Amino acid sequence: MSLHVYRTGCWNTFRESRNRYFLLKFVRRLSDTASSLRPGLILGCGSNVVDHFVYVNNQPVRSSKSLLSHDDSSTKTNVSPNSWSHVCVGGVTLNHLSWASRLRAKCGLLAAQGTDSIGESIREACKQYGIFTEDIVVSSQYSSSSSVVFYNSKGERSIVMARGATSLMDREFVKEHFSSSLDKACILSTEISQVPLSGVLYLLRRASEKGIPSVLDVDVSLTTACQVETKLGSELEFIDCLHSASVVKLSLSEAESLVRYLFPVCKLEDTTCSVMQFSSILLEKLSSAKMVIVTLGSRGSVLTSNVGSVFVASHNDTRVVDTTGAGDAYLGGVLAYLYHYGFPNSESRLLILGQVASRCASLCCGFVGGLAPLDFSLETCLADLKNSRVEAWFPESHV
After folding, report:
1. What 3 state SS string does 330-362 have?
2. Taking Cα atoms as reference points, which of 282, 301, 298, 300 lies closest to residue 290?
3. Considering 11, 154, 208, 319, which has the largest number of Cβ atoms within 10 A of its Cβ?
4. What pLDDT is recorded for position 35?
């Protein structure tokens, strides 16, 4: 064995032991102190829908047909003809609030809903998870949000959304209905997905004025958000939202779209080093950001803050059924950590945050939908983390 290999092996063993030590230390501390909650709520403003999940052989393509099921079960007389479909409550924001609430964070939803059965189902789900509904604006004049999700055996999915009353939540709407709601918040969580960008931007700026940290989930790309068919808002509003948030989370595809807009002559390579470099540049560029998170699907995620940058590998011990809510579950873990402990003050704590979030995402891939299972709890999450092997990679500059 060469000296180089020997040293590398020793370093990897030391690094793994150190990472595991910090994780177990966090687990013990969280077990002891998680019941002592911070004052205030995680207030989430964004998508809350009833999802209709449809299992298909192949994802729908324009001007084509696709079979609903991979077998002939729907033709058997003893099987329901709807066995290929599921109806679940969900939505980007409601999903991540459900995971945070199961990790003992107090949460509330800012939303607009109808008196229809869809709205009733969403509000009932909130009550099951202990998510406060006092700030939901309900009217018989509104229609609640819904979507159709096509997914296949690989967990891949395509989503068609009907925004309903969520599309009404522009600057004037949120100013009228939610300005005072922020007084009860310790964290604001919102999205670029269904809410008009003017409404998102207003809440982010108000939170900043009140000294409330904010988390922005960039669920659709700049191109998609600003195209004529969607028209959530303008490109300027999109960029201003990024500048106004304390934490910006986006997927690799959204990051690639952002690179094309911000740095036209550059290309984001699909490598961990390239994503880390992009995250560091974006963190410096965004005026209010304390943390940038880029999720890389089944590979893992990159978390960057002023204390450093880490790569956290995904937990791949769950059979993938549906990936629809994985990113939402991930953010739920992020919110729960921030709620209990605030922003990480070291790379080791940044790593722990990523581990908690990654575990939530992995568990979410094992079933259809994005809401946390009601039997998922802080205790089961901590027990799971105790038994997990920590895999993380630090850039050479941080070694």
Report:
1. HHHHHHHHHHHHCCCCCHHHHHHHHHHHHHHHH
2. 282
3. 208
4. 41
DSSP string of 176-192? HHHTGGGGGEEEEEEEE
For residues 169 and 112, the answer to whether their CB atoms sit within 8 Å is yes
Secondary structure of the chain: what % helix, strand, coil (to 5)? 45, 20, 35
pTM of the predicted structure, to 2 decimals: 0.82
What's the CA gap between 207 and 341, in Å, rounded?
19
- Distance between CA 348 and CA 399 in Å, rounded? 12
**Contact criterion met (CB below 8 Å) for 57 and 67:** yes
Which residues in the chain come in under a pLDDT of 70?
1-38, 59-85, 154-157, 318, 385-399
Angle at 310 between CA 254 and CA 42, to 5 degrees: 65
Separation between Cα atoms, residue 218 and residue 295, nearest integer Å:
11
Domains of the chain: residue spans and CATH: 3-46+92-141+167-398 (3.40.1190.20)
pLDDT of 152? 74
- From CA 112, how far away is CA 93, in angstroms rounded? 13
**Structure confidence by residue, pLDDT tens digits, 178-231:** 999 999 999 999 999 999 999 999 999 999 999 999 999 999 999 889 987 778
Q: Any idea what DSSP says for residue 396?
A: G
Structure tokens at 51: 């999802």
Take residue 328 and report the two structure tokens written for it. 């939402």
Pairing of strands 291-295, 247-251: parallel
Cα separations (Å) of 321 from 154, 273, 297? 7, 30, 14
User: How far apart, in whole angstroms, are the C-alpha atoms of residue 125 and residue 207?
Assistant: 27
| Per-residue model confidence (pLDDT) at position 8 | 42
Question: Encoding tokens for residue 373?
Answer: 């299972």
1 C-beta neighbours (distance < 10 Å), count = 6
Residue at token pair 């590998």: 313
Backbone angles phi, psi at 231, to 5 degrees: 45, 60
